[in-house]
Amino acid sequence: MIYVVERRLMSGLPNRSLTAANYIIAHESGNPNNCGPDALEREITNMNRNKAKAFTSHWVGGGGRIVQIAPINKLQYGCGPKGNPLSYAQVELARTNDKDQFKKDYAAYIWLLRKLAKDAGIPTTLDGSGNGIKSHRWITNNLGGTTHVDPYSYLASMGISETQFKQDIQNGLEQSQQIEKDDDKMQFTNEAPKAAVRDHIKQSVDKKLIDKSWLDKFDNGTMTNGDYEGLKLIIAQRSK
């Protein structure tokens, strides 16, 4: 599955360069009092309010939504003074009490962590030696400068063990996700409608309304009719 990354970059960030881009950091909010349907937006609002003290590049939640609020490959304030200068991106997971929503959030979380690692040329290994995807707990135990140990306890409370989390980071969730049916994939009887749909998607990419991954999905023939119907709604909303 390909996700749309909503770009809502905060203003007034420090825009400082990293010492090295060695890690992608996996966080969770650590906020048991914010688990409702609007938890993601509340967390983003709170982080924007307190960005002088703490902020990360991405949030995941709300049923599989991904929101980027700060630039990647720039200093973020998420895992302490020793880990921050080495972290290409840092990803927070908003909490929920809804197990069905958690499954969607977790799938997006895994996808994003792996994508960011691949974009940065970082191994998709979790809490191993050398460069890779690191939990906040790994930073605490190995680099110091912070005391947080997320995200393992929250993941465990939702049925995801440390072993499972590491396997999912390493391999992705593609094998466990529902495979799209061939008869639902977009089909065209001639080239004119196909060209019109592609042009619509490309124009939206050029306008930065959607991520280029949607155009890639159309070009490689894996976009379904449902994908495009949902994409049209997103484009329409962001064009207002």
Structural description of this entry:
The chain has nine helices and six strands. It has 240 residues and is an alpha/beta fold. It has a six-stranded mixed sheet, with helices on both faces. The relative contact order is 0.14. About 4% of the residues have low confidence.
Summarize the structure.
The protein is of the alpha/beta class. The protein has helices spanning 39-49, 80-83, 99-120, 136-142, 152-157, 162-171, 191-206, 213-219, 225-238; strands at 5-7, 23-26, 58-61, 65-68, 87-93, 132-135. It contains nine helices and six strands.
Characterize the overall form: globular
Helix-strand category: alpha/beta
Give the fraction of residues assigned to helices: 40-55%
Secondary structure tally: strands? 6
Number of domains: 2
What is the helix tally? Answer: 9
Strand content: 5-15%
Cα(first) to Cα(last) distance is 27 Å
Task: Give the integer mean of the pLDDT values.
Answer: 91
- Biggest β-sheet strands, sense, barrel: 6 strands, mixed
Q: Radius of gyration, rounded? A: 19 Å
Biggest sheet: strand arrangement: 1-4-3-5-2-6
The fourth-level CATH homologous superfamily of the largest domain is Peptidoglycan recognition protein-like
The CATH architecture designation of the largest domain is 3-Layer(aba) Sandwich
Give the H and E element order: EEHEEHEHEHHHHHH
CATH topology of the largest domain: Lysozyme-like
List the uncertain runs.
Answer: 175-183
